[in-house]
UniProtKB/TrEMBL annotation, chain B:
<dbReference type="GO" id="GO:0055085">
    <property type="term" value="P:transmembrane transport"/>
</dbReference>
<feature type="transmembrane region" description="Helical">
    <location>
        <begin position="249"/>
        <end position="271"/>
    </location>
</feature>
<keyword id="KW-0813">Transport</keyword>
<feature type="transmembrane region" description="Helical">
    <location>
        <begin position="31"/>
        <end position="55"/>
    </location>
</feature>
<feature type="transmembrane region" description="Helical">
    <location>
        <begin position="125"/>
        <end position="143"/>
    </location>
</feature>
<dbReference type="GO" id="GO:0005886">
    <property type="term" value="C:plasma membrane"/>
</dbReference>
<dbReference type="Pfam" id="PF00528">
    <property type="entry name" value="BPD_transp_1"/>
</dbReference>
<feature type="transmembrane region" description="Helical">
    <location>
        <begin position="283"/>
        <end position="303"/>
    </location>
</feature>
<keyword id="KW-1003">Cell membrane</keyword>
TrEMBL record, chain C:
<keyword id="KW-0574">Periplasm</keyword>
<dbReference type="InterPro" id="IPR006311">
    <property type="entry name" value="TAT_signal"/>
</dbReference>
<dbReference type="Pfam" id="PF13416">
    <property type="entry name" value="SBP_bac_8"/>
</dbReference>
<keyword id="KW-0732">Signal</keyword>
<feature type="signal peptide">
    <location>
        <begin position="1"/>
        <end position="30"/>
    </location>
</feature>
<dbReference type="InterPro" id="IPR006059">
    <property type="entry name" value="SBP"/>
</dbReference>
<dbReference type="InterPro" id="IPR050490">
    <property type="entry name" value="Bact_solute-bd_prot1"/>
</dbReference>
<protein>
    <submittedName>
        <fullName>Extracellular solute-binding protein</fullName>
    </submittedName>
</protein>
<dbReference type="GO" id="GO:0042597">
    <property type="term" value="C:periplasmic space"/>
</dbReference>
Length: 272, 313, 431
């Protein structure tokens, strides 16, 4: 590829990086200068905000990171299992009512979550799940994220039919076809689902906000939001320092998994 | 549990010959694979959805029991609510401009990054960074730094002698700054495009280049057609998401839709009705109208998709 | 049919899942009799509040109350969800704007039964007690009095060579200050004051000086069309003369401290609140102080009042109302508790606590305390609690209209009439 492409990409990267640089610089400034000075760090920069922020709330951020991590990993596992099964059924199996259920599934994508929030809360209350991570995790194992089902359906339908038809002829059960043929050939989409689930679960604050009451159960995003209150004293320095740290795990997760995204195809070797 | 049953079901059923067992053989695996989804759908999703539909015919205010008001909410929406009309305009404008631009950008970058070039993983990661930031508080402050009168954009423009307005707080341009924010966070569709591109067999390109087809021709003849399921997916999802777009406006305008309702997104308006003004019944009606709107669009897309989306089956 | 108790209906559809609840990570609603508290605020407020909660538990030998705190924006949807789900904490922080809303719907409980019993308010300021009443019953215990106040950047005033306005300043002084700042042209065109036309407290203060309330005791709108036209016309004059910020700059302010015109260095003064000095000072390298809102003419007063800024209320669904009332009594009366709490939520309403706290305060807190304590002739009567729809009129009418006028989309005459018509319609719909 030409030098021109590199120049273009580097230029674009700088625009993309600007927010992170700003965030980094804000986290290194004394609080009273954050909003009044530019992006460049001031002379009296320090990493105080990081120490103050990490233990600035009643519960340390190490607890929040652990909580977020547990919820995100469980969510990834749940989505991978449940959504891929549902997607396989919609993409490959023929059964009565398939189109109807597919339409229902898509329909669940369209209603704004703000209005189902309270009925859902009442439901989880009746199940005794308030104040636990169950409302955040169990739905993932029941494939309520229609987005991922739809995504996988689109990819499964791109896999050549001859492959599973041949297997069917050989007497393979749908289950064997699913995990011997479909899943290995779908590495890119499985990786994509993992990346998105992890990042979105990590970034989500509304569900944790509603369902978690005790600070030792808080996630990172919830902790971050607790730093700043528009009506009282706020620790902006701590907020920005912890914001920088909160990006690190999802950035690493992304870096690691995007390699799988690229390598996955080489190891499974899609030949036709 | 469900999966074992699915595996066991087929040989069992194959041994019988009756209509019932054949029906079982044909339909059961599908339902068994869908079992977790069915439990989630009926257990967790249907109840709240039906409840919200019921609430759209009530005056539910969150704090006291709901009372039936018939179609009052829907009537008010269309006859006596200027904010509803304003939020419709804002939302449609946002959908029409942000979705195609974001998709084009994501596809372009994905194609560019889907090469064996050194350092590509790093570029990919950098391009995904803005999407990682999501809805952080920092975004609001950052966007002001860029699009205010004395912000980055005007600094650049001033080199060319142009004196720009305060983009983010001028009602003529504020929505555009949110459209740019949406395009800037193009990481998710980009990744999906990338995953789609990885699935296109490399040997097809090899065959094409042997035939002397250039890069552009390969893109039009091979990449695009094989990518249509993914393009279709991204288009539908991004449109639904754009219709439901909430967080950018919520964060940047401080939840008000200011200046002068120029960023009053539909769901932002709905959220304020529900949680600021305690009109959950009305908000539910708004939600169901939005669902109807999106459903019409999606149905239309599916109907036309058979003319341009190519599946392998 | 009601929506509050759909327990049975929901379970019919979800009996399969009900079993799953059995393996919940911990028992839900463990009944250890601890009071549950919820409030909005940052960590500083939480430290103080929880320290008092622990001290209370130590002195009574009970389980320490559990506290949960959120930022203002997150607090209201969560509280509304909890109230709707019947899981609201026993004690919750309430705002002046929402207390009528919650009280008339029984989401919070009256405390009159505990008065003279576990709840001792003998020493409590009468006006603050009144402020927490709805329909004559006590629903909220004021946690501090505040007053509206102009937040002043004194460093900027020095730079511009203008004297910081004293408590006698008027809207005419505003013109002089505006001219002086224009002439000084400091910090890239900093104005003397931000645009206050969309500020509900500023309008409230202005109309009260004209002898009318913003909302009457019957929940009707106070100002008439002429008042409102004059209001918008006055700000137009200021804007056209360059005394206040342009509409474009003003729209950068979305309500948070870090985007105020003072924080952005675009104005030397903004309408604010006495308890906001601390937060603004914490993010501003300049020296800030507070002064009164301008008078409409020399010698006219009565615009200000000591506003209860935050309340403790007892949840209507609480099983421990009496215990909650006892805790609240300790919270507002105990001198040691008062020293821990300081004036973080406002000036304490018990005279004994106030006297004990005063010497321990920081410089900015002293300024706020002295300001609120010495309003003198600026002080007017406490207005009736705002009607249900006051919040909606503020956010979706006054602020929008002020921007429409500012950007030139509406004339002052048109906006004045529109405001009165529309506000009346909103009030009628909500009542």
């Amino acid at each position: 590829m030409s030098i021109g492409a590199h120049v273009l990409l580097i230029g674009a990267s700088i625009i993309m990086l600007y927010p992170l640089l700003w965030l980094l610089s804000a986290s290194l400034k004394p609080q009273e200068q954050i909003f009044t000075s530019g992006i460049w760090p001031t002379i009296d920069w320090s990493i105080d905000s990081y120490f103050r922020g990490w233990n600035g709330l009643r519960t340390s951020f190490s607890v929040f990171f652990m909580n977020s991590f547990v919820i995100a990993v469980l969510s990834v596992v749940g989505n991978l299992i449940a959504c891929s099964m549902a997607a396989y059924a919609f993409a490959r199996l023929r059964f009565k009512g398939r189109n109807f259920w597919f339409a229902m599934m898509l329909g669940t994508l369209m209603l704004p979550s703000q209005v189902t929030l309270i009925p859902q809360y009442v439901l989880f209350r009746d199940l005794g799940w308030i104040n636990t991570i169950l409302p955040l995790v169990v739905p993932k194992f029941l494939a309520v994220d229609a987005f991922f089902i739809f995504l996988m359906v689109q990819f499964f339908r791109g896999i050549p039919r001859e492959l599973d038809e041949a297997a069917m002829m050989d007497g393979c059960s749908p289950w064997r076809i699913f995990y011997k043929i479909m899943l290995p050939l779908s590495m890119p989409v499985l990786v994509t689902v993992s990346i998105f689930t992890f990042i979105w679960t990590w970034d989500d604050f509304f569900a944790p906000l509603i369902y978690l009451n005790r600070m030792q159960d808080y996630t990172v995003m919830l902790g971050l939001r607790t730093f700043v209150d528009s009506t009282g004293e706020s620790d902006y320095g701590g907020l920005f320092a912890m914001s920088v740290l909160s990006i690190v795990p999802i950035f690493l997760f992304f870096l690691f998994f995007q390699r799988l995204l690229i390598e996955g195809i080489a190891t499974t070797g899609m030949k036709r | 549990m469900a999966v074992n049953a699915a595996e066991a079901a087929v040989p069992d059923a194959a041994s019988g010959n009756s209509i019932w067992s054949r029906a079982w053989q044909n339909h059961a695996p599908g339902y068994l694979f869908l079992l977790p989804w069915f439990i989630g759908f009926f257990g967790l999703t249907v109840g709240p959805i039906i409840t919200s539909f019921y609430l759209s015919f009530t005056d539910f205010d969150l704090l006291t029991p709901a009372e039936w008001v018939g179609v009052d909410n829907y009537v008010r929406m269309f006859t006596n609510d200027r904010s509803f009309a304003a939020s419709m305009r804002v939302t449609f404008f946002f959908v029409i401009f942000s979705v195609p631009l974001k998709l084009a950008f994501a596809l372009g970058v994905a194609v560019l990054l889907n090469r064996g070039m050194k350092g590509l993983p790093l570029y990919r990661a950098l391009f995904y960074l803005p999407s990682l930031l999501g809805a952080s508080v920092a975004i609001a402050i950052l966007w002001r730094q860029i699009f205010a009168r004395d912000g980055l954009v005007n600094d650049v423009l001033s080199i060319f002698g142009i004196v720009g307005p305060s983009w983010i707080s001028n009602p003529n341009y504020s929505l555009w700054t949110l459209i740019i924010l949406s395009i800037w966070q193009f990481g998710s569709p980009m990744i999906i495009f990338l995953a789609g591109l990885r699935q296109i067999p490399q040997d097809m390109y090899e065959a094409a280049s042997l035939d002397g087809a250039g890069k552009w021709r390969q893109f039009v003849k091979i990449t695009l057609p094989l990518l249509t399921p993914v393009v279709f997916f991204n288009a539908i999802i991004q449109t639904i998401e754009a219709f439901k777009s909430f967080t950018p406006a919520f964060i940047i305008s401080g939840g008000t839709g200011a200046p002068i309702n120029s960023t009053l997104f539909y769901t932002l308006y709905l959220y304020n009705e529900a949680f600021s003004f305690f009109r959950m019944g009305y908000a539910s009606a708004l939600a169901w109208f939005l669902l109807l709107l999106i459903a019409c669009f999606t149905a239309f897309s599916f109907l036309t998709s058979k003319y341009w989306v190519h599946y392998d089956d | 049919m009601t929506f509050r108790m759909p327990r049975r209906q929901f379970l019919m559809g979800t009996s399969a899942l009900a079993a799953a609840g059995a393996f919940g990570l911990r028992p839900a609603f463990a009944q250890d009799e601890a009071l549950r508290l919820i409030w909005w605020g940052g960590q500083a407020r939480a430290d103080r509040t929880l320290a008092v909660a622990d001290a209370y538990a130590a002195s009574t030998g009970t389980t320490p109350p559990e506290g949960e705190f959120l930022s203002w924006n997150d607090y209201w949807p969560k509280l509304a969800t909890q109230v709707a789900g019947g899981t609201a904490p026993d004690v919750l922080q309430m705002d002046y704007r929402f207390i009528v809303e919650y009280a008339t719907r029984n989401a919070i409980a009256p405390m009159d039964d505990y008065l003279g019993g576990v709840l001792n308010l003998d020493d409590f300021d009468e006006d603050q007690l009144e402020g927490g009443k709805v329909d004559g019953k006590l629903y909220g215990l004021s946690l501090g009095a505040n007053s509206v106040a102009m937040l002043v950047n004194t460093t900027a005033f020095e730079e511009a060579g203008v004297a910081v306005p004293d408590r006698d300043w008027t809207y005419d002084t505003m013109r002089e200050i505006g001219e002086a700042f224009k002439a000084a042209n400091i910090r890239g065109g900093m104005t003397g004051m931000s645009d206050g036309s969309g500020s509900e407290p500023m309008l409230d203060n202005w109309i009260r000086q004209r002898g009318k309330p913003l909302y009457t005791a019957e929940g009707k709108l106070g100002p008439n069309v002429d008042d409102m036209v004059e209001w918008f016309t006055m700000w137009n004059e200021f804007r056209d003369a360059g005394y206040i910020n342009s509409a474009e700059d003003q729209a950068l302010d979305t309500g948070a401290a870090e985007v105020s015109m003072v924080a952005l260095n675009k104005a030397a003064m903004i309408p604010s609140n006495s308890n906001q000095l601390v937060i603004h000072q914490s993010i501003n390298p300049d020296t800030l102080t507070i002064t009164s809102y301008p008078r409409i003419a020399a010698g006219v007063g009565g615009g200000h009042y000591r506003k209860p800024s935050q309340f403790w209320s007892i949840s209507g669904a609480s099983q421990n109302k009496e215990a909650a009332a006892a805790f609240l009594s300790y919270f507002v009366n105990d001198v040691e508790a008062g020293k821990v709490l300081g004036v973080e939520r406002g000036i304490p309403c018990s005279a004994a606590v106030r006297d004990a706290v005063a010497p321990t305060l920081s410089e900015q807190d002293q300024i706020a305390l002295n300001f609120v304590a010495n309003l003198g002739d600026l002080l007017g009567p406490l207005p009736a609690s705002p009607p249900n729809a006051a919040g909606e009129i503020d956010t979706s009418l006054l602020r929008v209209l002020s921007q429409e006028v500012g950007f030139g989309g509406r004339s002052a005459e048109d906006a004045g009439k529109f405001f009165v018509d529309e506000a009346t319609a909103i009030l009628n719909r909500a009542s």
